[in-house]
Specification:
This protein is 34% helix and 41% strand. It is built from 4 helices and 7 strands. Strands 1, 2, 3, 4, 5, 6 and 7 form a 7-stranded mixed sheet that branches. The N and C termini lie far apart (52 Å).
């Protein structure tokens, strides 16, 4: 039982530490949320997540890999309408924390704000939430989201 875990750990590149780990995860966070909220690129999102990814949301429940990607593609298609609602996510400065998980990757946690606008109309602050993401470092050296928890959603007064 221990041997497969050790062999899997040996196949991974070393997990960076300190500022190098924080920079790597900050870059992946920016890439993930850039694709999710600004680019609407299902192929790019597929490359940012593991094949067994799970997304847990305090309002919507669990969405596993296939349902998550299908929902994302549907949302992207709807955003193409000129009067569609569009969202933007902003990481709250100073809230991102990153913790190494030896032999696997890292956990990122933080808080973010969500902004929305209808069509090309004015943007307004719509809400806030907290999140935790389990990032897996693959043997190819790429970080992919394996699990995500999106919790404590609330409007912003």
């Amino acid at each position: 039982m221990i041997l497969p875990v050790l062999l899997a750990a040996l196949a991974l590149p070393p997990i960076p530490s300190g500022p190098a780990l924080e920079q790597a995860i900050a870059a992946r966070d920016a890439a993930l949320f850039g694709v999710m909220f600004e680019q609407c690129d299902p192929a790019a999102l597929t490359d940012l997540v593991t094949g067994d990814m799970e997304f847990y949301h305090d309002k919507g429940g669990l969405m596993a890999h296939d349902a998550f990607l299908a929902d994302y593609a549907k949302t992207c298609a709807a955003k193409r309408a000129p009067d569609a609602w569009r969202s933007r996510r902003a990481l709250v400065a100073g809230t991102m924390k990153v913790y190494a998980i030896p032999g696997f990757g890292a956990v990122e946690e933080g808080a973010h704000l969500f902004y929305e606008r209808k069509g090309e109309g004015p943007e307004r602050l719509a809400g806030r939430a907290r999140f935790s993401i389990l990032w897996k470092l693959d043997a190819d050296g790429r970080w992919r989201m394996a699990r995500a928890f999106s919790i404590d959603h609330a409007p912003v007064p």
